[in-house]
Amino acid sequence: MAGGPTEPMPDLLKSVLNALARLLPARFRADIPVVPVVRLSGVIGSGTPLRPGLMLSSIAKSLDRAFATRNAKAVALVINSPGGSPAQSHLIMRRIRQLAEEKNLPVFAYIEDVGASGGYMLACAADEIICDQYSIVGSIGVVGGSFGFPKLMEKLGVERRLYTSGDNKAMLDPFLPEKPEDVKRIKAIQKDIHGHFIALVKSRRGSKLKGTDKALFSGEFWTAQAAIELGLADALGDVRSDLRARYGDKVRMPLIAPERGWLSRKIPGINFGATPGLGAGFADDLISALEARALWSHYGL
Predict the structure, then answer these.
(1) Helix H or strand E segment including 78
(2) Count of domains in the chain?
(3) Does residue 50 form part of some domain?
(4) Rounded to whole angstroms, how far apart are CA atoms 9 and 15?
(5) What is the pTM of this model?
(6) pLDDT per residue over 228-267, tens digit each?
(7) 90: domain CATH number?
(8) Cα–Cα distance, 18 to 175 (Å, whole number)
(9) What is the mean pLDDT of the chain?
(10) N or C, fewer C-beta in 10 Å, the chain?
């Protein structure tokens, strides 16, 4: 009879396909796990053209690309932030959770120097929080401040002229004496924000939390091991070691960096805002730098 053996063919075909697959670049191979990495670094909130802060508008595309990565097994967040804007912290955190649920992917947060205040809120977007042993974690509270210059104005002989419509429009004006009722209002706002922050941490960390509310939510911060004992974090480690332990030594960890415009790629440092060193632009950047420095120095950095 004509013909030959037919059974070995599927195995032979499988071997050929496997051999061809090994020739493909790693990013196209389905057998190599991928965990895209997104860095969330710096002070959270609006800054200046020269010192932009971490905002949803600046990180949204990177998050979308990370969660859409081919063959992704999870998404890793590398966090190094002393906090900043509560609203922007919450917006970024919510977007991460929305994408995680849409794509059904676990999220791991890796805190470097600091994951505190709004930076810790970002970490709460993850299913697990991993820290370096020297990381600073926590500071679940709300802080605000300003300066007052009424005596300086008087000494300089400068008269403040302010025109408003609305009894509280000039509340906490730094050039006017502080009013107790204004302080009471701002503290009420801070208390409300703090309450929402506490509820968020409880909803994300759940039964992992140990200790009293007074201890956990006083605004205090801790090193990693103490944070783990309190249930604010899960383990010690770093992104490379931890992901290799979870997914094997061949795991790919592509960094998903924010996209930049064509001009900013061709001309490093290009700025379409105020000219550095001149006028209000320089003053804004100086104030922004001082505010950022103050946030970092709060944690000894």
Answers:
(1) strand 75-81
(2) 1
(3) yes
(4) 10
(5) 0.74
(6) 999 999 999 999 999 999 999 999 999 998 866 544 444 3
(7) 3.90.226.10
(8) 74
(9) 79
(10) N
